[in-house]
Write a structure and sequence with these properties.
By secondary structure, the chain is mostly helical. It is 65% helix and 0% strand.
């Protein structure tokens, strides 16, 4: 972050008490990132540690890695937790053991162990839904004033804010959600803290705040299964869309709210939200319309309405055929491409018990999805496992589930783990098969540690 302060004697004292050099700290930070499947901190060296000890505040990601490396809270390292969007509690950072995200894994492991032991299914399993410690801080800093409108808005650099949101969206496809949500919440706070005095940029800044809030809501639910925080973030984004009169942002919020409703087991409500999003259809880019139609298709699939789901998928393909690089699409729709459309279609078809059609589409989705997008690959593999289970191919279903687990587990991706638990339930009649026993051994070995 580059902000100067008084010398950070706490950080230096912690390092010296451990008997470590500044290079040792760099090595420990790299190990912390590697052991949690986090992005590698590029260009990090002892000079950075020296600057931090002289009082320069680290980038939030570097600060997060420092806490992990020391197994300490920001305060014990002389770091401003609130400013950096970090949890204040030491327990949030753990130690440098090989297995990380232990709480999440133990919780899921107990469900797996119980299922294997008793033969019951896992449809009722819901991972723990803790609200990340930084979320209330971020929301309170970003909420509108008493009259319901944002006031005193001025952006130092709207382009910079949008670029940071876009970068965080890119990380969402591969980085652990708990770590990333802290960065997004910090980004929301950054936007709010750099606004003072309304001017002509206020609409753009409010829109930028709304886009970041949607991303925070997505991480809260699909990565952390925290539905209450998701609802608050989406409400914040909805108000931003209304205040800035941004139709595209409004559709963005409504469509993700629809998907949220579908995965909360309320697909009929999801259809209503999609209908509201579609009222802006003429003002939206083709790629956005294709995604909204895909969300609608998934809601209909959850309702078991095959004809409606397939009709929505056809509209999605037609809209996607019209999409092109010259459409000046909003940056936030970058996540949706031909690969994601295939993923949505496969998810719909497998839920409609068209296993053959689903496998053909999902195989294509797997082949064209960037290999670094581990969360997407975990979803695709889990859906393929479900399709194979429908066809009675137990061995192949287990193989795909193991693959899905290897994608989802290192980043603690809860929606991926939820899908795995659902398909494992479908295999319960075959629990004595060798492939199922081997799968259970894999899950138990990793999730109960």
């Amino acid at each position: 972050m580059g902000k100067g302060r008084q010398a950070n004697y706490r950080l230096k004292a912690q390092r010296l008490n451990g008997g470590w050099t500044q290079n040792d700290i760099v090595e420990r930070m790299h190990r912390a990132a590697l052991s949690r499947a986090l992005p590698e901190p590029k260009g990090l060296d002892a000079n950075y540690v020296s600057r931090w000890e002289r009082g320069i505040v680290p980038h939030p990601y570097h600060a997060y890695l420092l806490c992990l490396a020391f197994g300490s809270s920001p305060a014990s390292l002389g770091l401003p937790a609130a400013e950096l969007g970090l949890a204040a509690d030491t327990s949030a950072y753990g130690t440098l053991r090989t297995e990380q995200n232990a709480t999440n894994r133990r919780q899921f492991g107990k469900a797996i162990l119980g299922s294997v032991a008793t033969g019951i299914g896992l449809t009722g399993f819901e991972p723990i839904s803790e609200t990340p410690a930084v979320a209330p801080f971020a929301l309170s800093a970003a909420m509108p004033g008493a009259d319901g409108r944002w006031v005193e808005l001025e952006a130092a650099s709207v382009e910079h804010v949008a670029a940071v949101t876009f970068h965080l969206e890119q990380l969402r496809r591969r980085a652990p959600g708990d770590y990333l949500l802290r960065l997004v919440a910090s980004h929301l706070s950054f936007i709010r803290s750099h606004l003072s005095g309304a001017n002509g940029n206020s609409g753009s800044v409010i829109s930028a705040m709304g886009e970041a809030a949607v991303l925070a809501g997505r991480l809260s639910f699909w990565d952390l299964r925290d539905s209450s925080s998701t609802a608050r973030y989406f409400q914040l984004a909805s108000q931003a869309a209304s205040e800035s009169a941004n139709q595209a942002l409004g559709a963005y919020v409504l469509a993700f709210t629809a998907e949220f409703m579908t995965y909360m087991g309320r697909p009929r409500e999801a259809i209503d939200y999609v209908g509201a999003a579609c009222r802006s259809r003429d003002a939206l880019a083709p790629r956005v319309n294709a995604w909204v139609a895909s969300v609608e298709a998934e809601a209909y699939a959850h309702l078991g309405q095959a004809d409606s789901s397939r009709a929505s998928l056809e509209r999605a393909h037609q809209a996607m055929d019209r999409a092109g690089p010259a459409d000046h699409e909003p940056a936030w729709i970058d996540f949706f491409d031909e690969a994601r459309l295939a993923g949505y279609e496969g998810a719909c078809l497998v839920r409609l018990e068209d296993a053959g059609g689903a496998l053909a589409v999902l195989d294509r989705a797997s082949g064209i999805t960037d290999r670094s997008f581990t969360k997407y690959h975990s979803e695709i593999a889990a859906d393929m496992a479900w399709a194979h289970a429908q066809q009675g191919s137990v061995d192949e279903s287990c193989r795909q589930l193991a693959l899905a687990f290897r994608f989802a587990n290192p980043v603690g991706y809860r929606d991926g783990l939820r899908r795995i638990s659902h398909v494992r339930q479908q295999l319960q009649p075959h629990r004595d098969a060798a492939a199922v026993r081997e799968l259970d051994e894999l899950l138990v070995a990793h999730l109960s540690s």
